[in-house]
Recover the amino acids of this structure.
């Protein structure tokens, strides 16, 4: 199991078997969470020959507009925290929404998660980042390079970064499912990211076992009372579906990140985002181009693919 750097070892998580009656998190992670303090628009870039300020030329983009109809609801809402994407969601996503971001490698799923947490961390709220892919140090470095001061958030007790080996997590999934919601409440976190659920799904060879084991996990995260984002690799056969075709049916909102190639083979490959669904929220159903810059993901809301 990967572990955080020495100065942050109070945020380690012990995934050893809990059959001896001791809590899976008693030694380190639980105390780190319970002792933590309570929770308390970018401009369009020049694309160089393709973007004229109003839209893209015939190579693949054109201008578009959104439906300005408001979604009337008393459900508290929150912005995602990504320029342009929030404009595609009229009024924001309902709080405590469980969402998944689906995409192939290199489409910015991890960056999406970093910005998603930074949006509330920068306002003094608490959050938890659970990673099955990267180390604690790599997550902090990636975030700070994009202007998200994760090192300061951790030092201030606002952010817990938990790096887990996916095999260890699969072996102790039942213990984690039963205890993680309580620990999130103790930490008073308002948002959580799990990157990525695909690695967890891969631990189960049989489809029926995979479905049964994964089914309860999103439900327990929702019971924790946080707005949660999961990342998932896209299917090899269908960029609009997750690798195992399960998680999108268990979540309230689905965002798809994908590569889009124009009809002209000499044009560069572009990135595009689509919102497949958000329960209890109006949203644009258009596919919008985006870019990953030194400052993170920025969605170009004034441009459409066609």
């Amino acid at each position: 199991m990967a572990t955080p750097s020495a100065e942050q070892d109070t945020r380690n998580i012990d995934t050893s078997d809990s059959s001896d009656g001791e809590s899976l998190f008693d030694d380190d992670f639980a105390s780190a969470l319970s002792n933590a303090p309570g929770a308390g628009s970018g401009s369009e870039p020049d694309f160089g020959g393709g973007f004229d300020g109003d839209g893209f030329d015939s190579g693949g983009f054109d201008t578009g507009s959104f439906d300005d109809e408001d979604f009337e609801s008393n459900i508290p809402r929150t912005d995602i925290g990504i320029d342009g994407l929030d404009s595609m969601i009229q009024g924001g996503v309902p709080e405590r929404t469980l969402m998944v971001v689906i995409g192939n490698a290199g489409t910015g799923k991890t960056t999406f998660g970093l910005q998603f947490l930074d949006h509330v961390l920068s306002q003094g709220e608490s959050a938890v980042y659970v990673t099955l892919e990267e180390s604690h140090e790599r997550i902090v470095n990636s975030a700070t390079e994009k202007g998200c001061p994760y090192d300061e958030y951790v030092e201030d007790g606002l952010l817990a970064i938990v790096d887990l080996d996916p095999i260890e997590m699969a072996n102790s999934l039942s213990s984690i499912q039963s205890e993680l919601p309580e620990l999130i409440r103790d930490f008073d976190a308002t948002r959580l990211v799990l990157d990525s659920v695909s690695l967890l799904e891969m631990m189960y060879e049989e489809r029926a076992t995979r479905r049964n084991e994964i089914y309860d996990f999103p439900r327990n995260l929702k019971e924790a009372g946080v707005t949660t984002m999961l990342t998932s690799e896209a299917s090899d056969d269908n960029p609009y579906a997750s690798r195992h075709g399960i998680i999108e049916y268990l979540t309230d909102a689905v965002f798809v990140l994908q590569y889009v190639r124009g009809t002209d083979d000499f044009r560069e490959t572009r990135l595009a985002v689509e919102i497949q669904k958000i329960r209890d929220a109006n949203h644009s159903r258009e596919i919008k181009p985006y870019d990953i810059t030194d400052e993170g993901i920025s969605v170009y809301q004034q441009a459409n693919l066609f």
About this structure: Residues 207-223 form the longest helix (17 residues). Confidence is low (pLDDT under 50) at residues 1-72.
